[in-house]
Design brief:
Length: 778
């Protein structure tokens, strides 16, 4: 299809965010990108959490509207701002067919929330079945609590109506109308923790150290008798199951309300599961994790009596992490069949081949409720399977036809977006021709989000008749005045043959032949995602670094040997071969390389620092795991040993156990560090969590700086927190890789600390090139 950017149409169209700019890459040279610009970007996906349920584009059942959800950081409010935008398909179609008239479709901000410092604030967005409104949960606050409340926004009146009481924290829900819906309630979080009075002696065995040292870190209302499953039937609210009887997995029960609104399918923990459930296997490459059996399974709950029944005598795909990212069952129109998108099959059959097949993976399946017939539609692929896929939604088109819509943003991006299946006379299912959801195929145009490593997100509509596509909405028109630099996808192989893929961001005004400093950003790469901060919004600062003349490589990890002693060396091999490739191509200066670690890749960066090789001239880590001894001790009963033991070769007790830890654990090898390190930790608990590498380097008098950011979410969503982490990392790497200090007087104390670290680094490593700033008079 041919995409026509708005600037070609030679008119100005005013939307909620202002005038529509030309597509990225066709703008005039402007100012450089900053961390504040990154915070202010409106994204169609929430940071690190994927699109809200159902995909980016949410069509109304009657085909007249579609909605999208954006989130941007508001530094003026110190809060993220989430907005549900609604478009009329008729307006978009008119614009696509007659763009010369200049009637750009209006983006209706149906609901906007900026109610807390951390996001996401709007979640679980879905249309009512009659297309009259959109239901969603949103973060709210009362005088004493913070909670998520269920709302419906009316399309005609724009009225916002709450459907659940204040001080009930709503998790999952499903809804048919204002008078028929079901939801799960949890205890709300207290805004002010109660004072801890002196208590008598009490047993702490089995408690985590977090609950012992930080009892008020995450206080909730207790006791809370309103927890569990609630239903509203014909406008009457009732408490169906209390919290003890309603044991849902951490992500919620994936509720699916029946057409008559009198029963619901939920994924709940199974009481007394048979021993045979332990025979189900893990996905390819995940068997080494040795995860315990997850007894979550599909249940049918009668909303009048509260009785619940196991639908399939087998666990859901939550068992062993068979994750296809969609678990919610779908009812047939007559309420007599269920599409179960991720379930194992029972092992109580006699055919050995069938037993092996059923034990090897779950399926997308159909259950006929009257007969109990369970049929296989499609095998779930997960783990390290090269054919792994992600599902946006799955539903009945009619009683014998199913539609599965895939999320192709990461897995199998070049495969069709949908698959259609029809049930044969023998009960089996076959895939039909066609690669588009039949409901979408009836629309006069295709609407999609256009985004790539070098393209900020925007909405594009394609006319089905002419094949011409037009950009009709850009939520980030402010970028038209900013010079963004250029990003590209690169590939290479390391000496084991592993194939790496990453995004290389070159600074604005890049000059071939000039060697630039490089910062390696870790934890993943998605070529369909605009490379702004990084794969997540925690600590990464790609465009802000590039704006200051630093090349950035956004790369993932080699997962083949995760949770083994080879995990660290595999990642180091990736770092080394990436630097070698870019140095040989004349792009970077190999002695001016930095790295940022976040979450799991904190371990990878620390491991690379303790190999005894001066791979990095500077490093930064934020809120992650180290698999070190101190972390191991304070994580007792938390499950860390399931990964730390195999990574370090055993338990750190006894002579032989300690030998393996001395060989593999970065914290026992800090004496080999030749790289200055800054730790950016959000809140007191995270400072405590990564105290060991900081304390060890301080004992060894090696250059290290520890900075506590405001507390927040693991994937940062708070604007002030994000700005602080990105700005500090830009300053840190400019200091160590470019011999530069920001003249802002407010940063004088920061540079005094760092100059002393520079003196320390130069004196300890006299044979290494240095590019930092030595101590001077301020």
């Amino acid at each position: 299809m041919k995409v026509v950017p708005l600037c070609v149409l030679l008119f100005e169209a005013t939307l909620a965010f202002g005038s529509l700019p030309c597509a990225f890459g066709e703008t005039s040279v402007g100012r450089r990108f900053t961390a504040a610009d990154d915070v202010g970007l409106a994204l169609f996906e929430y940071a690190g959490q994927g699109a809200p349920s159902g995909g980016v584009i949410k069509y109304s059942p009657d085909g007249r509207y579609f909605a999208v959800v954006t989130e941007r950081g508001r530094l003026d409010l110190n809060a993220p701002e989430d907005t549900i935008w609604v478009f009329r398909i008729e307006d978009v179609q008119r614009f696509v067919q007659h763009p010369e008239e200049g009637n750009a479709p209006f983006a209706l901000p149906l609901a906007t929330m900026a109610t807390d410092k951390d996001g996401p604030l709007i979640e679980r967005v879905r249309w009512l079945s009659d297309s009259s409104g959109i239901a969603f949960t949103a973060v709210q606050k009362s005088a004493r609590c913070k909670f998520r409340q269920l709302f419906v926004a009316d399309i005609a009146t724009h009225e916002l109506k709450s459907l659940t009481p204040a001080d009930q924290d709503v998790g999952d829900f499903d809804i048919r109308s204002y008078a028929r819906y079901v939801y799960e309630a949890n205890a709300p979080k207290l805004l002010t923790a109660p004072q801890q009075d002196e208590r008598p002696a009490r047993a702490l065995t089995g408690n985590t150290i977090w609950a012992t040292l930080f009892p008020d870190a995450n206080p909730h209302v207790t006791p809370f008798d309103a927890g569990g499953l609630w239903a509203v039937i014909d406008g009457k609210r009732q408490h169906v199951l209390n919290a003890e009887l309603y044991e849902a997995p951490p992500g919620g029960a994936s509720l699916s309300l029946s057409p008559d609104g009198r029963s619901v399918v939920a994924i709940l923990k199974t009481e007394n599961p048979p021993d045979s459930w332990a025979r189900y296997k893990a996905p390819p490459g995940y068997d080494k994790f040795d995860d315990p059996v997850d007894t979550s399974a599909y249940h049918l709950i009668d909303l009048t009596s509260g009785t619940k029944a196991l639908l399939v005598n087998a666990p859901s795909g939550l068992n062993k992490d068979w994750n296809s990212y969609f678990l919610t069952a779908n009812w047939s129109a007559d309420g007599e069949s269920l599409l179960l998108p991720d379930t194992f099959f029972p092992l109580e059959v006699t055919d050995p081949k069938e037993i092996a097949e059923r034990g090897s993976h779950p399926y997308i399946a159909v259950l006929r409720l009257k007969s109990g017939q369970l049929s296989k539609v499609l095998a779930v692929r997960a783990g390290l399977d090269k054919e792994r896929y992600a599902v946006n939604d799955a539903r009945f088109e009619d009683d014998r036809t199913l539609v599965v819509n895939f999320d192709r943003s990461y897995y199998l991006p070049d495969h069709p977006p949908a698959a259609i299946f029809h049930q044969k006379a023998d009960g089996g299912w076959r895939q039909l021709p066609g690669t588009e959801d039949p409901r979408l195929a009836k629309l006069p145009m295709r609407v999609q989000k256009r985004e790539s490593i070098n393209q900020p997100p925007e909405l594009v509509a394609e006319d089905r008749t002419s094949g011409v596509a037009h950009v009709f909405w850009d939520p980030n028109s402010q970028l038209k005045d900013i010079e963004l630099g250029s990003a590209e996808v690169i590939q290479w192989k390391d000496d084991t043959g592993y194939e790496w893929e990453a995004g290389l961001l070159k600074p604005p005004g890049y000059a071939p032949g000039k060697r630039y400093p490089l910062v390696i950003q870790t934890h993943g790469f998605l070529k369909s995602q605009f490379l702004s901060s990084g794969i997540f919004t925690s600590a990464f600062a790609a465009r802000a670094l590039a704006a200051q003349g630093i090349a950035v490589l956004q790369m993932g990890a080699n997962p083949n040997n995760f949770d083994t002693p080879k995990e660290g060396p595999d990642q180091v091999r990736g770092f080394e071969t990436a630097v070698k490739k870019l140095a040989e191509e004349g792009v970077i200066d190999p002695v001016r390389v930095g790295a940022i670690g976040f979450s799991r890749s904190v371990f990878h960066v620390l491991f690379a620092m303790t190999t005894g090789k001066p791979l990095f001239a500077a490093a930064s880590v934020t809120d992650g795991v180290t698999f070190g001894y101190f972390e191991y001790i304070y994580s007792v009963d938390g499950g860390l040993d399931q990964e730390a033991d195999p990574i370090n070769g055993g338990k750190p007790f006894g002579v032989e156990g300690l030998k393996t830890w001395l060989a593999h654990s970065p914290e026992f090898n800090l004496d080999k560090v030749q790289t200055p390190l800054v730790l950016l930790q959000p809140g007191v608990r995270k400072v405590f969590a990564e105290w060991e590498p900081y304390a060890g380097l301080r004992y060894l008098k090696k250059p290290v700086d520890l900075i506590m950011l405001p507390a927040g979410t693991h994937v940062m969503t708070n604007p002030t927190q994000r700005l602080a982490s990105e700005t500090t990392n830009v300053d840190w790497f400019r200091f160590w890789l470019q011999d530069y200090e920001d003249p802002d007087p407010a940063k004088a104390e920061q540079y005094k600390r760092w100059e002393k670290l520079c003196d320390m680094q130069v004196s300890q490593n006299p044979n290494q090139p240095s590019f930092c700033v030595r101590t001077k008079t301020h």
